[in-house]
Amino acid sequence: MKIAVCLRRVPDTTSKIVIGAGGKAIDEAGLKFVPNPYDEYALEAAIALKDAAGAGETVVVAFGPDNVQETLRTALAMGIDRAVHLQGAPSADGLSNARVLADHLKDGSYDLVLFGKLAVDDYGQQTGAMVAELLGLPCATAITALEVADGRATVAREVEGGVEHAGCSLPAVFTCDKGLNTPRLPSLKGIMAAKKKPLDIVPVTAPAGKVEIVSLALPAERAAGRIVGEGAAAVPALIQLLTTEAKVL
Amino acid sequence: MTAILAILEQRNGALRKGSVELLAAARRLADQAGTTVDALVCGAGDVAGLDALGAAGADRVLVATAADFSVYCPDGIVATVAAVAPQYRAVLVSATATGKDLAPRLAARLGGCCGMDVTAVDIDGANIRAVRPVYAGKAIQTVMLSGTVVLAVRPGAYAGVSAAKAGTREPANVPTYFKRLTVTGIRAPEKASIDVAEARVIIAGGRGLGDPKHFALLEELAEAFGGEAAVGASRAVVDAGWIEHGAQVGQTGKTVAPELYIAVGVSGAIQHLAGMRTSKVIVAVNRDKDAPIFKVADYGIVGDLFEVMPALTAAVRAAKAH
Ligand SMILES: Cc1cc2nc3c(=O)[nH]c(=O)nc-3n(C[C@H](O)[C@H](O)[C@H](O)COP(=O)(O)OP(=O)(O)OC[C@H]3O[C@@H](n4cnc5c(N)ncnc54)[C@H](O)[C@@H]3O)c2cc1C
């Protein structure tokens, strides 16, 4: 099993978002950055599948500026074998970025290419499926179950009102959702080992994109709510408000 | 390359909820650009409800029929759309699990670009401007998209329109395609329940419930709403195994926009708020008056949920009986 995982570096999910000076991106000062939480399910799946196969290689790939190397090291500390830093500036257009990744992945002879279902910063939710389309590979997105046997994969994904099941032959591209597994934490031994694992740097340029960010703004605050009262005694007043004021009953 | 294409979802021969709303978004773009709306429905046989699509805003309904379309068949839909793509300036899908899967595949095949989970769309000269929540709803991004644009429009973002025309119906050609992924079907959960992503009312429970069996308190209230309420949950109780993943609302769960969201024993962590702050009306029941959930709740009751919930259920039942 040779498995590639594409990884993004994103602000920690507890971060308070402050809009940067240009009004198009966040102010990154003082933010803590982490591997994209959904990518961790992909990393875990890759490591577990290789372990189960007893042979193969896991590779983590990140496209971005030099600070993604720190995130790649975290993946190596979890147990991924080697890392590739596609060094350059990602575009606001997912397809441009997908082209960069697909270009790198196409000659890698990977059985599986895994992504997180979305990155919790731009919520783009498109790169994995685009890479699959560019590579001409089968793809399922937001999977919560994955089984690989005899050159085939069967997957499950949550859809409205149920769980959709699907199958395809390998090689294939999947994007991973919560529920797929429980990602391991990097161990101290893993962190030491990660320092010695290979991290290749490949300079790349994203092709011109068709998406331009015009602005980034904070959402309108919800108007301050009100405490209707305390305990069961407050229920009649609440029902009254829901019926006459909010009109949702 | 002018018209707008809306790809409508069907399941088991019935159009999915949200088709009419998606047509409304398509109609808006088409009216601004002075062009027409085509609706594409991919099915294996008859699909109910097509006659109503003209009045909902479709100038033309294209029906693509293939045996594979009895279930979701991304490779077939992508091939079908790619064959007619030069006619379209924008392709719209609902930002459902299916639509979010389809949109990027289409954008890649068409060499266009993809706007995911958009809440508002407009024509701006040669471009399409889209508004979309990012950072789990903690910020709102406006983007300008050019070329062939594929948009996944968030369910609930648009209200249906009523157009004064009937619309025409035509079969659409399904070209030969290579089916790389085979969807075998959808398994419904053992307990038939409404999905939080589609419910008008959500009763969400958190760690304050104390024990999985206390979800019964939420189910009783959901029942009192009579078939329009779903039970949701915070991640804390999903991770504890008290309820299945599908119920999780929040950053790593579902983004929901019901008319009424009742958060019971939920603290209101930023990642939970990310998924439910777009609810129209939020009610919180929490015994901690300083719980962050009260900052987003329209109405709050400070108190023990074990005392409040039975009273609330009885009151809703009584209100509904009127
Ligand atoms: C990467 C990441 C992603 C995450 N994604 C999500 C997500 O998608 N969704 C999500 O929900 N969380 C998410 N979380 C977790 C989130 O940070 C919180 O841990 C979680 O939302 C807390 O759940 P809770 O409110 O049920 O529990 P708690 O925070 O423990 O709150 C319990 C609440 O119940 C109240 N309570 C207790 N007993 C009673 C009683 N008898 N009557 C009334 N009130 C009572 C308490 O006052 C308290 O406010 C994520 C975290 C991370 C790190």
What does this structure look like?
The complex is a heterodimer of chains A (249) and B (322). Helix content of chain A is 27%, strand content 32%. A 9-stranded mixed β-sheet of chain A has the order 9-8-7-10-6-1-4-5-11, sandwiched between helices. In chain A, strands 2-3 form a two-stranded antiparallel ribbon. With 249 residues, chain A is α/β, with parallel strands linked by helices. Chain A is built from 6 helices and 13 strands. Chain A starts with a strand and ends in a 5-residue tail after the last helix. Chain A has helices at residues 37-53, 68-78, 94-105, 127-135, 188-194, 235-244, and strands spanning 2-6, 9-11, 33-35, 57-64, 82-87, 112-116, 139-149, 152-159, 162-169, 172-176, 199-203, 211-217, 226-230. Chain B is an alpha/beta fold. Helix content of chain B is 26%, strand content 30%. Chain B has helices spanning 19-33, 74-84, 97-110, 215-224, 235-239, 270-276, 293-296, 305-321; strands spanning 3-8, 10-11, 14-15, 37-43, 60-65, 88-94, 113-118, 120-124, 127-134, 139-145, 149-153, 168-172, 182-187, 201-205, 229-233, 260-264, 281-286, 299-302. Chain B has a 7-stranded parallel β-sheet with strand order 7-11-6-1-4-5-12, with helices on both faces. A 5-stranded parallel β-sheet of chain B has the order 15-14-16-17-18. In chain B, helix 2 (74-84) packs across helix 3. In chain B, 58% of the residues are buried. Flavin-adenine dinucleotide (FAD) binds at residues 206-208, 234-237, 248-253, 265-267, 269, 271-272, 275, 285-288, 291, 304-306 of chain B. Flavin-adenine dinucleotide binds next to helix 5, helix 6, strand 17 and helix 8 of chain B.
